[in-house]
Amino acid sequence: MNKEIFNEKKWVVIAGPCAAENRNQILESATEIKKTGGDILRAGIWKPRTNPDNWQGSGDIAIDWMVEAKKNTGIPISTEVKDIRTIDIALCADFDLLWIGSRNAQNYALLEEIGKQTSDKKIPIILKRGFSSSLDEWIGSMEYIYKNNPNVILCERGIRGFSPDTRNILDLQTAYLAKQQSGLPVVIDVSHAAGRSDLITPMAIAAKAVGFDGLMVEVHPTPATAKTDSKQQISLDDFDRLIQTLNRIPDSRTIYGKK
Fold it and tell me: Which helix (H) or strand (E) holds 209?
């Protein structure tokens, strides 16, 4: 994948299951997402969970499923890394994009390490905002990666709030300030922000209309059977409809910022 995929000419959609559950699920997702217009396949392989007794993801075996999906469809692949070992494995498998999740958003040793390990090839690294990170904290975390690998993308995934109606609060205001202050691309993870599938489309429309650089969305062949976060994943058919809707929304970076 071109390390410059996040650029002024392309609004990027990163889509796929919350977790890689089995080979067929990944291959089906990759095929349909690529055909529909998704740019990058995402799936969690090593799942950091609040409770250690909860399912922690399929683990290393899922690397083979993702690599096969890339080989079959040509779609770039991405996943979350949580420690030095998983960084090494993902890089050896030629993943095109890696991300640091909100639980590790202020793990400065890990942030510095991923910057160092990707410094040669300048592989794109997405840094999700921490659950309660301020703008300064988010930008500060980014700089630990940036000093070795400037190919960083920021990701707003919602912050903790008081309301039980949504999983998190989608903070587009601070996300836009992050884009202005850092000069980096910013993508919006609508799935983790909302925590419910019925909010995915309107929040995705807002993200593109405001002038962000892309979208991260969880898509599953059968969301009701998903092993993790079933309520916030949309079906492949719904993803198709989402892409058709987004294609009618102008790329507002031409309006609100210099492309």
Answer: helix 200-210
pLDDT tens-digit readout, 22-46: 999 999 999 999 999 999 999 999 9
Q: Does pLDDT of 258 surpass 50?
A: no
Q: List all residues 6 or more positions away from 229 whose beta carbon is below 8 Å from its beta carbon.
A: 18, 19, 191, 195, 218
The full DSSP string for 179-227 is HHHH-S-EEEEHHHHH-SGGGHHHHHHHHHHHT-SEEEEEB-SSGGG-S
φ/ψ of residue 78, rounded to 5: -145, 155
What is 12-251's CATH topology?
Answer: TIM Barrel (3.20.20)
Q: 226, 243 in Cβ contact below 8 A?
A: no
Written as one string, the DSSP assignment of 65-80 is HHHHHHHHH---EEEE
The SS3 of residue 218 is strand
Does residue 2 have a pLDDT over 50? no
The CA R_g of the chain, rounded to the nearest whole Å, is 17
Residue 31 to residue 198: CA distance in whole angstroms: 24
pLDDT per residue as tens digits for the range 121-162: 999 999 999 999 999 999 999 999 999 999 999 999 999 999
Q: Which of 154, 133, 158 is nearest to 145 (CA)?
A: 154
19 neighbors 57 (Cβ within 8 angstroms) = yes
